[in-house]
Design a protein that fits this description.
Two copies of one chain form a homodimer. Chain A is α+β, with helices and mostly antiparallel strands. Chain A has helices spanning 73-84, 120-124, 166-169, 178-185, 281-286, 304-311, 335-342, 370-374, 428-433; strands at 4-8, 37-39, 117-118, 134-137, 140-143, 188-192, 222-225, 230-232, 250-251, 265-269, 277-280, 290-298, 325-333, 355-360, 365-369, 381-383, 385-386, 389-390, 400-402, 415-421, 470-476, 484-485, 487-488, 504-508, 517-524, 549-553. Chain A has three domains: 4-46 and 459-475 and 488-550, Immunoglobulin-like, CATH 2.60.40; 88-207, Cytochrome b5-like heme/steroid binding domain (Flavocytochrome B2, Chain A, domain 1, Roll), CATH 3.10.120.10; 212-450, Sulfite Oxidase, Chain A, domain 2, CATH 3.90.420.10. The longest helix of chain A has 12 residues, at 73-84.
């Protein structure tokens, strides 16, 4: 009798289904590199499409006029992060065209005063420090003063002020699309004086590539984009309980900010009007008990390509296969201990404190409900170590938030500010990108407030959100007619709850026909299950694709 | 244009789909009594089959010999409840034949000594207080000494000691089946002397019906069984946020124990070797802050009939339709406050305290993880009031445990003892009945330890476990091809989390064809969803049937 062994665990592991055993008895164990199955939904090509930043809105229902005033403390935090964000400019005047947002309406129509020309000398005076910064695109001149606040990359756009944006867009190619051009066009005030043109063009300057300091990365990662880096853990990294650090998936929205650990500080704003507190890296490592947990991080978009193919509908964003998930050991102080030290009364917190907002040095920001942070069993860390070593730059050096049991987007890397607030973070990553709407909801005319931000995640082989333990993994080799159970491996996780994935293996006592399908589904301790199909959970952002994993057996 | 209005909320409400509007514009609102849809899976008949008590095991893998010694404190608690259980006898020598358990093996074979006869005078000496109690069935004589401890109804079986069990079995008809007879047969020691027979039979005595003191009940309840009472909330009771108390579903395993409130006491055993503490009803009402929450209770078996019909496989237990769910307001002290008063250190509890076991006056028992009880936001009450009035007898008067967000089976009624322990309750309701195994797992040769007890429940329109809020209700009128959203009604719930169901309504702008299907599915804040179909979640106990609700439109 021929036999098949399937080694599983994370959603990824079905990718490492191995070849039918050639020895009788089915006892052969094969290397995970020997892949004979591939997900039916796996995309063969991965176009360089990113689901990167969109402009920020302080209101949610309709696009915000560029002059909209921000008045909440919460928003201030986000903006402060931007002011310290490292260099580079022109980062996404608008997001990808697959996104749902309409261009912002201007409060007053300022048609480009056609025929109005500006000399380059005058334009250069509208630099980063001027009252009204301008940029050039083509031969057009644009007053971006009212736009800066809505720019997802924050004030980094000012790097181009007084000159042309195009050298930057040659790096951030995401801008090279019609909808970006259309947004910019609203701010046009005239053109460059033909006297300054060379062969009809504005002379271009050399600009620094902000990604030039990104770290070297492992070639075994499965790269979707390089700038910013988005790369899956390869199958070989998904067969062990702990993912080797170099193989841990990378999900960046920007470049990796270079941070000097000796001058690093994290600022805590308790949101109660008290003075902000700051802590150095040394403070975090020596003033507080250090805790170690193991926890999976998973991108909300993991298996997005499966959702698109399974539903026959295109979802926007990076076309992740199964590898936007990894498991590591994390160590650092508990955030609740730091907050207590900063003055928060954990036993009787202010009623208007509902969220903890995190800002990263890279301009990224997100938040989690304060209950998760306060929970003595919640295990939210300010992680300084990963797998027993200092955090590598790609994973947040020197400090990242680690929110176990919650979608990866909330574990903010390079965190430099924490603000407690009545409101969620105002960033688009909190208020827009990481939400799921109904299958019928298109990206046009969406009311972003109609869905909650993704926090705890649903069950997905073989990990669940909220620390809910995986209790069973079901396998079907006859397209769901009958089922059998995989053998869940002994748990090696650390922490108050089941923050890690469950590894499993399955021994199929017969040879599977090439072309047949293996289905895997997991069940967690609340007996929540994965849905049968992708169509009914399709959402235009392509988040949380957790339908059964169907894997075709190859020859 | 004809129109259809669907009023929803609990799983039940789809039953109250109303007739297509006869007026144009679709604005007509119909009474909930006007039912035009019925669940496709609805059983037309409800045979009087109960999933009532089975004998208790102190070990889990294999049946326990009757003489097995119990040594854990936890078990003691369960047994103590039995000793105080109210009168009546003969309660399930074995459970229903649909259950998975094999008859217990005897440690030594005691073949009935055929030809050995006993006079009735001698048998009467083996009454409840004797060292070796005997009972009569037919003309057989049985020494049940070694059986008492394994009897699910506990020592109430002793009510028949010294006489015939048959008058009791005429009340508890569940005993009248072969597997019960077979178990009893193992204890046969001989026969009644023919000299005492009248027309070949043992003269029967009159016995009291322990159900005679059960309360009067509302005739609108949908009765599945009368003794014990198991009755669904009718559709008319499921259209309001709070279920009227008389229409709150009833799920009993025994009769309703009559309790004198003036002598009522609850005993707390902290499991740390300290003295037990007791509290009177007055103590509970006056010594502790009283809290009010709203919370759904739902039987794990709700929609079992749908699971059976949807999967084409028979599941054991009461064939609930959609009405084993109701929502009420509950009031009483928090259990954590009472435990603290009894001496538990909530900030630093003993590590070996993992579960809180509850015993009811009726002999029922169950447990929940101690974390749920300790959680300041967990809202576990010792409920003394329901919907603003004292708890009615059918719902636990004078005190029941109310564990919101957890399957109904853990909210033990008529609670008189709470024991903290390293282990779960040893009752079959904890260790066996309320678990889900894989679709492939038969009731024979099941290893009961292979599945966890149901605690927090999965998402199910329109309520979820663990206080996870319902964020969306999707409706499809074209068999799942396209979806639309129902309008979720403003939340009226009280408590720290979303313990109540979400009511919803949906206005379909077109007439639905008779025979067509309306599908409803809910999504909770963790974006867990209901599975598409019943087959892959089938389990032989028929628990947690949460696949999409499919409702056929009737003419």
């Amino acid at each position: 009798m021929k036999a098949l062994r399937i080694f599983g665990g994370p959603s990824t592991l079905i990718r490492s289904v191995v070849k039918p055993c050639q020895r009788s008895g089915g006892l052969g164990v094969y290397s995970h590199a020997s892949i004979s199955c591939r997900p039916i939904n796996q995309y063969q090509t991965r176009p360089f499409i990113t689901d990167i930043p969109r402009r920020i809105h302080s209101q949610h229902d309709s696009p915000v006029p560029p002059t909209k005033q921000r008045d909440s403390k919460a928003i201030t935090a986000g903006i402060l992060a931007f002011t310290t964000a490292v260099a580079a400019l022109g980062w996404t005047l608008n997001g990808p065209d697959l996104n749902a947002e309409a261009p912002p309406a201007r409060q007053e129509t300022k048609d480009a005063p056609k025929g109005k020309f500006f000399r380059l000398d005058e334009i250069r005076k509208h630099g980063a420090d001027s009252e009204r910064p301008w940029v050039i695109k083509g031969t057009g001149v644009y007053d971006i003063t009212d736009w800066i606040e809505s720019h997802p990359g924050g004030k980094v756009v000012l790097r181009a002020a007084g000159s042309s944006v195009e050298p930057y867009w040659n790096i951030f190619t995401i801008h090279k699309k019609d909808d970006v051009y259309q947004i910019l066009e609203q701010f046009r005030i005239g053109d460059v004086d033909p006297l300054d043109l060379v062969d009809g063009c504005v002379p271009q300057e050399q600009v620094d590539d902000p990604f030039r300091e990104d770290p070297e990365r492992d070639s075994r990662l499965v790269y979707l984009t390089e700038k910013p880096c988005n790369a899956e853990t390869p199958p070989s990294g998904l067969t062990s309980f702990i993912t080797d650090t170099p193989l841990f998936y990378v999900r960046h929205h920007f470049w990796v900010p270079p941070i000097d650990p000796s001058s690093y500080k994290i600022t805590i704003d308790l949101g109660d009007g008290s003075d902000e507190k700051t802590y150095t890296l040394d403070d975090l490592r020596t003033k507080f008990p250090q805790h170690t947990i193991t926890a999976v991080l998973q991108c909300s978009g993991n298996r997005r390509s499966h959702m698109s193919e399974g539903s026959g509908r295109e979802a926007s964003g990076l076309k992740w296969d199964v590898g936007a998930i990894s498991n590591a050991e994390w160590r650092g102080p508990r955030l609740r201990d730091v907050l207590r030290d900063a003055g928060l009364n954990l036993e009787d917190p202010p009623e208007d404190i509902q969220h903890a907002q995190f800002s990263g040095e890279d301009a990224y920001g997100a938040s989690v409900p304060i209950d998760k942070v306060m929970d003595a069993r919640g295990d939210v860390l300010l992680a300084c170590e990963m797998n027993g070593k200092i955090l590598p730059p790609d994973h947040g050096y020197p400090v990242r938030v680690l929110v176990p049991g919650v979608t990866g987007a909330r574990s903010v890397k390079w965190v430099n500010r924490i603000t407690l607030s009545e409101e969620e973070s105002e960033t688009q990553w909190q208020r827009r990108d990481y939400k799921c709407f109904g299958p019928n909801q298109g990206r046009d005319a969406v009311n972003w407030d109609n869905a909650p931000s993704i926090q705890e995640t649903p069950v997905h082989y073989a990990v669940s959100g909220g620390g809910r333990r995986i209790i069973r993994v079901d396998i079907s080799t006859d397209n769901g007619k009958t089922w059998d159970q995989a053998e869940i491996q002994p748990d090696q996780s650390r922490g108050n709850k089941a923050w890690s994935w469950a590894l499993w293996k399955y021994h199929c006592g017969r040879r599977l026909e090439p072309g047949s399908t293996v289905i895997v589904k997991a069940i967690d301790e609340t007996y929540n299950v994965q849905p049968d199909t992708h169509g009914p959970t399709f959402n235009f952002r392509g988040n949380l694709a957790n339908a059964w994993h169907r894997v075709r057996v190859e020859d």
